Structure formats: C-alpha cells, structure tokens
Amino acid sequence: MLYRLEIQRLLLQIQESAGNAPHCIGLFKQAIQIADKNDDLDLGIDLRVMLIREERSTSKCEESPAAFAWLLAQCEQYPEQIDEAEFFEEYEWMICSAYSNLNFPLEQVYALANDLKTRLDKYDFSKRSYYYTMAGLAQHLGDYTLSNFYVEQARTEPLDEICNETMMYDNEIENASRLGNFDEAMQLMQEMEYKKLNDFSLPFETYVSMAYFMAKSNFGKATEYIAKAKEEFTKLSEINSSLLYGLTRFVYAMHLCKDEDAWSYYEIMADWDQNAEDDLRYMLSRHMAFVFDREGEKQLQLSPKVPFFNSKNSYVLKDIATYYFTIATDLASRFDKRNGNENAKNELKKLEKENQER
Questions:
Q1: What is the pLDDT of residues 100-115, one digit of tens each?
Q2: What pTM, to 2 d.p., does this model score?
Q3: H/E segment holding residue 297
Q4: 315: enclosing H helix or E strand
C-alpha cells in the first residue's frame, strides 16, 4: 500500500498548487500512472475525474479525452462496480470540447451526444443540460432555429444537480439576448439578481452575454450591463483561462461601446489562446481582428507567451489586427470544411460589416 502514500503525497502537492492548472494536471497524470500500475480501479477512476475537472478550469482540452474514454471503457467492463452517472457532467463538457476542436469529425460529436442521451434515459435523469449543450452545438453550426428548439425542449425537463437554477437562468438569458429579446432578458436577469444566484463565473458571464448582444444591436442599455459585468468580475473567486470565451465577448462589447477599459481586460487574456480549443481560438481571433483594426500604437502589458510580444510593450495596432485576421480566416475555412457549411466565414463577414457601419 506504499503506492497510496505516494498518491496522497501528490494530491497534497496538487492542493498546495491550486490555481496552477498545468502543474496540477501533470501531478494528476503521475498519480494516475501509479494507480494504474497497481491495478487500483477506484483510485484510477477518482483521479481521472479530478484531472478532467482540473482541465475544465483552462481553455484547453488535451488530457481529458483519453481520461474520459478510459472511464467509459471501465463502465462497460465493470458495470457492477462503476456508476456511470457520476460522469454525466463531464460528458456534456466533452461534447462541447469535441465540436470545438477541428480534429473531431461531426459524426463523432453526434455519436457522443446520442450516447449521453441514451445513458440519461437509462437512468431516467433530467436532460435539461443535455438540451442546452445541443443548443450550443446548433449555435456553433449557425442553425439558430434548431438552437431555439433545443432550448424549448430544455424547458420541459426538471432542474437537477448538473443544471441548477443559476445555469437555467444563464442559458435562458443567453437565448433571449441572442434573439434580440432584450426586455425578456432583462426581466430574467432581474429575477436572477433578486434570487442572488451565482455559480463560479456566473452571473459575470451572464451580464457579458447581455452586454455583447446589446452592443451588437446598438441597444442603449449595453453600457449598463458592461458596468454590472465589471463589478461582478471583481468578485470572481478565480481568474483562469476557462473565462476566455466570456472575456472575449466582454472586450468586444466594450470596443463597440468605445470603453477604453477594454485594453486592460485584453491584457489579462491575451495569451490564453495558446493551445486552446480551436473554437476558442476562432472566437478570440475573429473579434480581436476588429478590436485592433485602428491606426496608431498602444502600450500594452502582455505576457511573453503572446506570439507578437515585444519587450518595449509598444504595439502597432494594425499589425495585431492583421495577425488575428489571418488566424481567423484560416480557422473559419477549416471549420466550414469540417461542418459542411459557410457559417464561420459568414460570422467573420458579419463582424466586418458591423464594424464598418460604426
């Protein structure tokens, strides 16, 4: 049983390294190797679930697919010993990561989603979070009619531990804002505020969603929700690269509203796209291509990990715009080839038109 002491030592190091996800993931991998070498199924399961949850706090999905595949394989091999229902929350994240990465064919994404639906039916579990996940996939593909259908289906399912009331409000407000139903979104947000609902990055990202779609629609209250998001950002228990999607939207909303605070938030996330999921890289690059599309130079405090970093901290804005536009154009072409449509290219064109009209 000495190996268990070694694993406990690694878990203690992980606890002491909280906030340093790459280091913690490396330690989890060491612990998993020890558990597997000693045929400890229970520890192998627990450690892989912990690894996946650790990686969820980043913009990457590198180690989780193999860990998740192993968990599913053990469910098949030892159905009496393993409760597959414990992995459902991770299952939904894996679906999102799958369609966000170009190396996953769409048929594999749908197969993964269908498998989850079958397992949820098997246990008679709520499919609310599953339908919200499928709405996200439909949005990724540009099918907003299908996305709205999935949101409507979600409403017929009960809340549970995976999709709690906070998550429900966030998804409903996102859907209403995306459709331009801002009165509905504001009413739902008032309810969310009254109930004081929060869950890690929520309601920060909920405010951001409202501000983002309002700013894109020239809706006057966009600045009000930018201010609310700024206040909520200061309350976050942890700032990590899992916030890349939300912060990209936030910076872009401030850009449209001519809020100079956009630069300080960009500095926080500027290196988070390194090795990030492809969809997150496309999200950042297509928006920043237009945020930086202006004359002049800017002093920015950026991480040396940023590819265009320079020690003088002075950057030609048009050069950075070109850098991001090149990446966005390439990713748009590759996503459209994978998805069999032109939605990604059209998103890029819409952003271009949006900025030309201002």
A1: 999 999 999 999 999 9
A2: 0.93
A3: strand 297-299
A4: strand 314-316
